[in-house]
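Page 47, continued from p. 46.
Same chain as before, 75 aa.
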Amino acid sequence: MVTPEDIQGWIAQGLVDAEVTVEGDGRHFQATVVCADFEGKSRIQRHQMVYGVLGDRMKSEIHALSLKTLTSSEC
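Result:
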């Protein structure tokens, strides 16, 4: 079973210097990702970046993921 720590690690590994917090119950997760690379990108583009890092895990291991994506100036 996937844990919030697993998802946090996968995102942090793929988005260098990102601050990642993930909560969840094993099926439904909520992640807050703060990353300088999000600067100048739309919310959709930011979510696509996170989904790109997670890759096929979004199809098989992660049932539902709610994202909040911010730059440090938006916090």
